[in-house]
């Protein structure tokens, strides 16, 4: 391996099963000090690529070469369930594998790097989603890796957190591979892209940032379409000539034969135009037919202010066609608040008993990971309409790119992005009167976000939304804002 090459894939293939190919004879290299974005459709195999790199998974064919002196640390999308009960100190000791005094010294440094105040005796599950995202990064940094693998690091982060992470990575002197659907974030610091093509199961390697790659792909598609159009004209011309000479008889039939041979050559020279990632179909979330007339009221809420639980009065009325956004920084208690709203345990919230609530959690814990996708969608369908047909359910699933193969898979085996699409499909089948959405853009392919925003904008029930993505929220009509800091 060349001195500056730290990773090399040579014709690597990996399958989850005989029917589910993920990588097919993939080859690429990564040089020392590079910061590379890993992109591709939900379920294309981006997280699988990381697991192959760290030898959590083994390839079926091909070779993966990693510099023997290279230390690698991964910040995954979510904190493992078995880590949730650990204290902060126990969590860092697990991943640093150092003496306690050295762990504490490094811990202070990496927590400062991710801009997080985290008492060493605090339990991991007591942190907000955004704070847990920072802990994931800090646990990777404490290992002082030569190669940092980041899997959707901006999920759950507020704008201040994303800005801090971006600035950190711009100054980070070592190698980084990052999976993300956030174009602005990627443009700030990446200098190359590994693009996983879900149609060919290949990895395409590009120079430049996200915008550069999009432009290169568009230019390539345009050239391929133009070349094929030229070939198509030549094919048609030769077909016309072949038909003309074939009717002349005699020696002209030999001319016609040569024309047909030329047609075969032109057909073989046509190129497969690069396919773009599929986008989910436009959809709408139907509203509960017997929507209750009772008013929904929020009279008080609880928030964490200066690390203390504070209860404040509110006067918010939720009605049909009214959309409420809840805002505030990481750690103030947004997710805790809306979870208690969804469960009906929030003291300051009054909901009609007949109201059907559709709750989208950022960690997908409302889904049963042991269920098949088909079972989960059927469950949501039956809850709203026992007479709904299986054809309707399959049509909804197809619109969210949930193929027959995915429908037969356990939810726990899906990528995080695919779990998000299952959650949205359930909402469509559930027909809720109240939608409660906690960071619905997390893990979702950027191509799907305008479609989802349009569906939420046109939703005619009551809605409560938490999102840190301004460009997404701007596409949705918001009637009221509840700022937990005020």
Write the layout of secondary structure elements.
Elements: E1 5-17, E2 20-31, E3 35-40, H1 46-53, E4 61-66, E5 72-75, H2 88-96, H3 100-113, H4 129-141, E6 147-151, H5 159-171, E7 175-179, H6 183-189, E8 192-197, E9 202-207, H7 210-246, H8 252-269, E10 296-305, E11 308-318, E12 323-327, H9 334-343, E13 349-350, E14 357-360, H10 373-384, H11 390-399, H12 404-407, H13 416-430, E15 434-438, H14 449-457, E16 462-466, H15 470-473, E17 480-483
Parallel strand pairs: 3-7, 3-8, 5-6, 6-7, 12-16, 12-17, 14-15, 15-16
Antiparallel strand pairs: 1-2, 1-4, 8-9, 10-11, 10-13
In short:
The protein is of the alpha/beta class and 486 residues long. The protein is built from 15 helices and 17 strands.
């Amino acid at each position: 391996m060349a001195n500056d090459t730290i990773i090399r894939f040579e014709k690597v293939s990996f399958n989850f099963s005989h029917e589910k190919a993920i990588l097919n004879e993939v080859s690429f290299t990564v040089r020392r000090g590079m910061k590379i974005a890993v992109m591709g459709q939900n379920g294309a195999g981006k997280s699988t690529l990381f697991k192959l790199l760290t030898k959590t998974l083994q390839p079926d064919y091909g070779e993966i070469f990693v510099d023997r002196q290279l230390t690698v640390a991964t910040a995954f999308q979510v904190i493992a369930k078995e880590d949730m009960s650990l204290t902060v100190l126990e969590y860092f000791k697990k991943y640093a594998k150092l003496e306690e005094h050295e762990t504490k010294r490094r811990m202070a440094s990496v927590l400062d790097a991710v801009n997080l105040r985290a008492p060493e005796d605090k339990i991991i599950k007591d942190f907000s989603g955004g704070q847990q995202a920072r802990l994931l990064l800090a646990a990777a940094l404490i290992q002082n890796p030569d190669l940092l693998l980041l899997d959707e690091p901006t999920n759950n982060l507020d704008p201040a957190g994303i800005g801090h992470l971006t600035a950190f990575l711009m100054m980070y002197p070592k190698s980084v591979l990052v999976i993300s659907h956030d174009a602005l974030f990627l443009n700030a610091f990446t200098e190359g892209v590994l693009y996983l093509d879900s149609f060919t199961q290949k990895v395409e390697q590009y120079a430049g940032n996200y915008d550069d790659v999009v432009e290169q792909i568009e230019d390539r598609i345009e050239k391929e379409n133009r070349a094929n159009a030229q070939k198509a004209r030549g094919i048609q011309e030769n077909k016309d000539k072949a038909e003309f000479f074939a009717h002349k008889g005699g020696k002209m039939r030999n001319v016609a034969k040569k024309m047909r041979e030329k047609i075969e050559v032109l057909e073989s020279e046509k190129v497969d135009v690069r396919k773009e990632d599929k986008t989910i179909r436009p959809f709408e979330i139907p509203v509960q037919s017997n929507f209750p007339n009772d008013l929904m009221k929020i009279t008080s809420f609880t928030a964490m202010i200066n690390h203390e639980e504070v209860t404040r009065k509110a006067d918010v009325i939720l009605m049909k066609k009214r959309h409420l956004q809840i805002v505030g920084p990481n750690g103030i208690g947004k997710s805790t608040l809306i979870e208690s709203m969804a469960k009906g345990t929030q003291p300051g919230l009054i909901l009609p008993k007949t109201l059907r609530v559709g709750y989208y959690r950022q960690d997908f814990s409302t889904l049963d990971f042991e269920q098949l996708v088909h079972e989960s969608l059927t469950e949501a369908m039956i809850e709203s309409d026992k007479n709904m047909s299986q054809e309707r359910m399959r049509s909804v699933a197809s619109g969210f790119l949930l193929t027959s193969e995915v429908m037969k898979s356990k939810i726990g085996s899906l990528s995080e992005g695919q779990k998000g699409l299952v959650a949205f499909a359930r909402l469509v089948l559930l027909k809720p009167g109240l939608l409660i959405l906690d960071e619905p853009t997390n893990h979702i392919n950027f191509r799907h976000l305008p479609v989802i925003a349009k569906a939420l904008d046109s939703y005619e029930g009551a809605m409560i939304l938490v999102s840190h993505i301004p460009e997404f929220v701007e596409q949705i009509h918001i009637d009221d804002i509840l700022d937990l800091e005020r």
